[in-house]
Amino acid sequence: MMKIIVTKDGKELGTRAASQAADVIIQAIDARGSANVVVATGASQFETLAALVARQDIPWDRITGFHLDEYLEIPEDHPASFRRYLRERLVSQVPIKEFHYIDGQAEDIATECTRLGTLIAAHPIDVALVGIGENGHLAFNDPPADFDTQEPYLVVELDEACRRQQHGEGWFPTLEDVPTQAISMSIQQILKSAAIVCSVPDERKADAVAQTVEGPVSADVPASILQSHAATTLYLDPPAASRLTDSVSAKG
Predict the structure, then answer these.
(1) Spatial contact of 17 and 237, defined as CB atoms under 8 Å apart
(2) H or E element at residue 129
């Protein structure tokens, strides 16, 4: 069952989301000596990742990280590259044991998806840090999302709403510069995570949040599938929660 927590602002959102993720990670390490984590990117994760890397009690040398999604044919040093984002905001900041990036420039994309799938099959995920797109996407699974594929990673088409969001957030100078394809972790692979911590700030996400939480589970709102996950916590700031009903927004 999805748990909803509305925080007072984006900073508290990040602190509380990071605190839960850290607790799950530490519990996993205490139980078996290691932890496996999926990490998202984008503006929604700024505060959460900043709070997570600031923690002094996480044994990063026992953690294996996985990349959630990446554009095709974007160089690693491009300002919008998610590899660059993760390197700058996480991997270079902590002594993580290993981090498995998605190579969107791989010579053979099918082989790259297979490589990633083999790696993640050997590392059951303890916690996935994710967000929700303005169009309701989960990772880069834009609507209508494939809820059925069992492939861990797949090539997806980015719809115009998704591409407008990337341009609107300032990652690309024009809409035409935003790629039309990406490699994304699949819906079913995300749902295999023991815990999911979903960080969603900003009013521009409010409609997607309301549909995710209060609407039916539908491929047209990919993030709505989180309703079916046993341990998802959705962290919102007040603008992101602004279109929820009072009974829902009061949770947490």
Answers:
(1) no
(2) strand 127-130
The tally of CA atoms less than 13 A away on the side-chain side of residue 16 is 20
pTM over 0.90: yes
* Residue 145 identity: A
- Using one digit for the tens of pLDDT, what is the confidence trace for 161-186? 999 999 999 999 999 999 999 999 99
pLDDT in tens, 187-211: 999 999 999 999 999 999 999 999 9
Separation of alpha carbons 19 and 84, rounded Å: 24
- Three-class HEC string of the chain: CCEEEECCCHHHHHHHHHHHHHHHHHHHHHHHCCEEEEECCCHHHHHHHHHHHHCCCCCHHHEEEEECEEECCCCCCCCCCHHHHHHHHHHCCCCCCEEECCCCCCCCHHHHHHHHHHHHHCCCCCEEEECCCCCCCECCECCCCCCCCCCCEEEEECCHHHHHHHHHCCCCCCHHHCCCEEEEECHHHHHCCCEEEEEECCHHHHHHHHHHHHCCCECCEHHHHHHHCCCEEEEECCCCCCCCCHHHHCCC
Closest CA to 64 of 43, 88, 39: 39
The percent of residues above 70 in pLDDT, for the chain, comes to: 97
CATH fold of 3-249, please?
Answer: Rossmann fold (3.40.50)
- Among 56, 44, 65, 52, which Cα is nearest to 22's? 52
Cα(209)–Cα(215) distance, integer angstroms: 9
